[in-house]
Design a protein that fits this description.
The structure holds two protein chains of two kinds.
Chain A (H helix, E strand, L loop, with lengths): L6 H4 L12 E4 L4 H10 L5 H5 L5 E2 L4 E4 L4 H7 L4 E5 H6 L12 E5 L5 E8 L4 H9 L2 E5 L2 H10 L4 E5 L6 H4 L5 E6 L3 H5 L2 E10 L1 E5 L1 H6 L1 H13 L1
Parallel strand pairs in A: 1-3, 1-4, 7-8, 7-9
Antiparallel strand pairs in A: 2-3, 4-11, 5-11, 6-9, 6-10
Chain B lengths: L13 H20 L3 E2 L5 E3 H4 L12 E3 L5 E4 L4 H11 L7 E10 L11 E10 L5 H17 L5 E6 L2 H9 L6 H9 L3 H9 L5 H9 L4 E2 L2 H4 L4 H5 L1 H9 L2 H4 L2 E4 L12 E6 L8 E5 L3 H4 L6 E7 H13 L6
Parallel strand pairs in B: 1-5, 7-9
Antiparallel strand pairs in B: 2-4, 3-4, 5-6, 6-12, 7-10, 8-9, 10-11, 11-12
Helix pairs in contact in B: 1-4, 6-7
Classes of the chains: A alpha/beta, B alpha+beta.
Chain lengths: 231, 325
């Protein structure tokens, strides 16, 4: 399985740093710490650090992509294991514990910590007012499934508005009363005069594995896990 | 003119049909040689009948109403229809009964995930043969079938649907906490399992056991190394292992954390893996309580192979992608 087409390279190569496993690495916010982690395992990451246009690093068994694509590549078996945020995994399930990607979630890597929050404009909460007077609140988000699930589970009617870009804009223009978004430090929210009303879930980077690789490459994956846990 | 068909369905044209036929003819031959008689059942069944199986995960996705207003469903597998056939058409026959099938089944899909709505399955059901003999026979037929179609690198993951429940009982996990742990395991979420376990009042060693045992998978040495409450939990797997022919046994990966999404499994469960494919090619297991729900209580075991996945894996092996065994 994976990108390395030479079978001798992929079959149980326990001598290499990652046992010849193909690893899906997220570009973006988790990239630096993920690459540091791979360096710590003994992988030569110099090209990975210096070349941000290249996608495929066959000699070290790494493929790079946006974090939300990591579960897709790992589920299909194009990568044996991968690293992505818990927010991504939660958003790709249709309901709590249902319809998620068919991947194993093996380890909480601890970095990339951030919180999924419900936020609205400072002052009297416009979302509460909308709910009281109109029976429904409008919520903008890049995470429609997480938002919908949270509002459903807390018994509130909401119209979810999916946006792709800066979510903060939506309440400032009056399009919605609240947003559901990921925040690490809260700086962006503060800059836009938004305050956190509810914390929905804490998210960190997770190590995931393809279900077939998890069985057929058990030794390599377990060895990797053991080393990551020891750190 | 282009006329669309529903996503997740497709037309199969002669070049593909020829290759698929080679696979299905070979499978039929193996099943027949082992004494399994082929059956056809209707694609449409009464919802009230299939619902007897109490398949929480039934994925009976397509319902229609007939002219009298009765709810009909498209079958999601062949195991439940065959349980109905056995109870209805073979009410007194001396077991064991052996059936095989080649049939289309229907599942709900999530869009843009490349999932089929209609899938062709080939499989067997062995009714009235208890564990461990019945299980060993089914695994033997499974390997013979895969060998005959020419799949080379395959392995069989063998687990037990009751294993984790037995572990939880063994270390005294309170009843009300068990569904949450099982749910995390079914989600393949070991991080979630660890979180759930950390909230329980358990000895550290027991917590560690419940987290580590379902992550154990490998050769028969796993069963030998079993300790404490794990010994009882793997007793069924050990019995099956003893009965396997050597060429079958060497294909088996014992998997103490294996779970299958279908709710009717009771004992041994298994899945087929091949390095050329990122998803299991098929699977099966024991369903000792299903027949009873249709009025003919008999232990049973069976498996289904997904023909399209098998086809892709064969092509992958031919091209030399994936690791060798």
């Amino acid at each position: 399985m994976g990108v390395a087409k030479d079978p001798s390279k992929t079959s149980g190569d326990l001598t290499s740093a990652t046992g010849g496993l193909t690893i899906a690495v997220p570009r973006g916010a988790l990239f630096k710490e993920t690459v540091d982690l791979l360096s710590g395992l003994g992988l030569d990451t110099s090209e990975l650090r210096s070349n941000d246009r290249k996608l495929l690093f066959e000699d070290i068994g790494v493929i790079t992509m946006r974090p939300s694509d990591v579960p897709t590549y790992v589920e299909s078996g194009a990568a044996d294991i991968g690293i992505t945020g818990k927010d991504v995994l939660l958003e790709q399930a249709t309901a709590r514990g249902e319809g998620g990607r068919e991947v194993y979630e093996l380890l909480d890597l601890g970095y990339g910590r951030c919180t999924m929050v419900l936020a609205s404009k400072a002052g009297p909460d416009p979302a509460a007012e909308a709910l009281r007077r109109l029976g429904v609140m409008r919520v903008a988000t890049k995470y429609p499934r997480i938002a919908e699930r949270h509002l459903e589970e807390t018994g509130r009617q909401a119209e979810i508005v999916e946006v792709k870009g800066s979510v903060e804009l939506a309440p400032l223009t009056g399009m919605v009363e609240a947003i559901v978004d990921l925040t690490a430090t809260g700086t962006t929210l503060r800059e836009h005069d938004l305050i956190v009303r509810e914390e929905i879930v804490e998210c960190t980077a997770r190590l995931i594995a393809n279900p077939v690789s998890h069985k057929l490459r058990a030794r390599e994956i377990d060895k990797l896990l053991e080393r990551l846990r020891a750190d | 003119m282009i006329h669309p068909i529903p996503s997740g369905t497709r037309d199969v044209l002669p070049d593909e049909t020829r290759e698929v036929r080679a696979i299905t003819d070979a499978l039929r031959g193996v099943f027949e040689r082992h004494g399994y008689g082929e059956v056809y059942t209707p694609a449409l069944e009464y919802e009230s009948v299939l619902a007897r199986a109490d398949m929480a995960e039934a994925k009976l996705a397509y319902r229609v109403f007939d002219e009298s207003g009765a709810a009909l469903v498209l079958r999601s597998d062949m195991t439940v229809p065959i349980a109905r056939v056995v109870a209805t058409r073979y009410p007194t026959e001396e077991p064991p009964l052996r059936f095989c099938y080649l049939a289309h089944c229907y599942r709900g899909v999530r869009p843009q995930r490349g999932q089929p709505r209609e899938l062709l399955q080939a499989g067997i059901e062995l009714i009235g043969a208890p564990a461990p003999q019945g299980t060993a026979e089914a695994l033997g037929v499974l390997c013979a079938a895969l060998d005959t179609v020419g799949l080379e690198g395959y392995r069989i993951g063998l687990g037990d649907a009751s294993l984790f429940t037995s572990l939880m009982a063994g270390v005294g996990v309170p009843e009300q906490a068990r569904p949450r742990l099982l749910e995390a395991l079914a989600d393949r979420d070991f991080v979630g399992l660890e979180e759930e376990l950390s909230q329980l009042d358990l000895a550290e060693a027991d917590r560690e056991l419940l987290l580590s045992v379902p992550q154990r998978r490998g050769g028969p040495e796993l069963l030998e190394a079993a300790e404490g409450v794990v010994v009882d939990a793997v007793a069924n797997m050990r019995e099956v292992h003893r009965l396997l022919e050597p060429d079958v046994a060497e294909r088996v990966i014992f998997d103490l954390g294996l779970v299958r999404s279908i709710g009717y499994y009771t004992g041994a469960i298994f899945e087929v893996y091949d390095p050329a494919l990122g998803t299991p090619i098929g699977g099966g297991g024991r369903y000792d309580e299903l027949l009873g729900r249709f009025g003919r209580p008999l232990p049973a075991v069976g498996f289904a192979l997904e023909i399209d996945r098998l086809h892709v894996a064969l092509m992958g092996e031919e091209r030399g992608t994936g690791a060798s065994l």
